[in-house]
Amino acid sequence: MKLSFLLTLVVAAAAQQTIDVTSKTAAISAAKAAMGPLQQFYAGNTRGNGAWIEQYDDGHWLIQWHETGLYFDLFYKYMQYSSDYSRLPFVDKEMQITVGSNGDFLDGMNPTVEIAGRWNDDIGWWALATMTAAETFGKDGIIARNNLLTGYNPTYLSVTNTTFHQIWMDWDTKTCGGGIYWSRIRTGSNADLKSTITNVQELELGARLFALTGNADYKAKFDIIYAWLKSTGIIDSNYLVHDGVRDGGCTVSKEIYSYHTGELMAALAVMYQATKTQTYLDEAHKVFAAVRTYFVTASTNVLDIEPSCAAGVNCKSPTGYYWAIYKGFANLYVATTDNAIKSSIAKIVQSSALVNFKGCDSNWYCIRNLPVGTGFTMQNGTNPRDQFETVAILNTLAIINGAPPTLAVPGGGSAQSTPTSSKSAAFSIVSALGSLAATAAGWFFI
């Protein structure tokens, strides 16, 4: 299918759905409407634990725990650029339940929770959501301000910071020269894997925490992790991002998934914004070039390729969710000074929107009814993740069309008592508070 770019691009969907994908106003309006279907099935598919049901009683999988963190991040990101806080009580209530009285996602580092499946990448997705909220509502913004309970209203920032340091606890230099383990225990399946996703999540958290707080320790850890990713070959010479390394050989696992690449692109773009060090932007551009080459169909400019999912191996069914890459596109679009790259990002996002929105009705309900028994859907085949994808695209469309999120000013106080005030605050770039030379395969930060 050939897609032509006119001065105005309009997509027509089922039930007369239309959107001008070049319009900021249209993207924000569509995102507002899409929030209803995004929330629609949650109440009937949770067990009151602050998350979607992972598995029904019959063993059928729905939404995994870590994906609920991604889900709530979509809401916070929407609030960040739209100034629409109508769904904040819903999101914060669920976040308050999940965080509990210990102010983290591990129930105070409860060993049972750590063993049972809350691994470093799982808590990383949740921390990225609270990071978005901290950027939106300020360093002093608290979880569930409308439901004050002693010990149950930590700041978004404190939860994010705690999680960052909990993940860093599993940084290990005894094997493979460094890297953060995927699992939080060193026995059992995959306990020896230093997974890429955990390391790039920590990169993004570090970049964003540095941008918000100015604490040089976050940047130092960012540079250490990035140098390790390069030196191991996890990031190869083509800037393809592979799945990780294992103890006992440290051979790179060659699988390539979009979420690794999206997180890396997002992290590098934010660190460039925070430091104005050109090397970070140059690296982000190289990651974007790899995305364009290996994940996007050149003839259509549509993001629709998962290199390691071509045969449906090692991937969820249904596949094709690019939430992290869309986030990376938005971050890089805002950060880059290269107008050609801005144009390329816009074309990819707009073309992908034209395809993805075809299944949306006039109410921005974009959820497919798949065959009963399809994995990772509701028991009747309803696929809520489709709406995740829709909102991820709309969030990015709004940003590239001129509604970039205005982040809380480093060193500033809470904006939560008057949320709209955070929208008028200009994002101030944090100066690099120190330089850390990190060498990896002939590559330097300076």
Low-confidence stretches: 1-14, 409-446
Largest beta sheet: strand ordering:
3-4-5
End-to-end separation? 45 Å
Question: What is the C-alpha radius of gyration, as a whole number of Å?
Answer: 21 Å
Q: What global shape is seen?
A: globular
Count of DSSP-assigned helices: 14
How confident is the prediction overall: mean pLDDT? Answer: 87
Range of strand content: 5-15%
- The assembly state of the depicted protein chains is single chain
Largest sheet: 3 strands, antiparallel
Task: Tally the beta strands.
Answer: 7
Helical residues, percent: 40-55%
Secondary-structure-based class equals: mainly alpha
Succession of helices and strands: EEHHHHHHEHHEEHHEEHHHH
Quick structural gist:
The chain is mainly α. Helices cover 46% and strands 6% of the residues. The chain has helices at residues 24-40, 65-82, 88-99, 111-116, 120-137, 156-168, 196-213, 216-232, 258-275, 278-294, 323-335, 339-356, 385-400, 421-424; strands spanning 10-13, 17-20, 193-195, 242-246, 252-256, 296-297, 302-303.
Structure description:
With 446 residues, this protein is mainly alpha-helical. A three-stranded antiparallel sheet has the order 3-4-5. A two-stranded antiparallel ribbon has the order 1-2. A two-stranded antiparallel ribbon has the order 6-7. Strand 4 and strand 5 form a beta hairpin. The termini are far apart.
SSE inventory with pairings:
Layout: E1 10-13, E2 17-20, H1 24-40, H2 65-82, H3 88-99, H4 111-116, H5 120-137, H6 156-168, E3 193-195, H7 196-213, H8 216-232, E4 242-246, E5 252-256, H9 258-275, H10 278-294, E6 296-297, E7 302-303, H11 323-335, H12 339-356, H13 385-400, H14 421-424
Antiparallel strand pairs: 1-2, 3-4, 4-5, 6-7
Helix pairs in contact: 1-2, 1-13, 2-5, 2-13, 5-6, 5-7, 6-7, 7-8, 7-9, 9-10, 9-11, 11-12, 11-13, 12-13
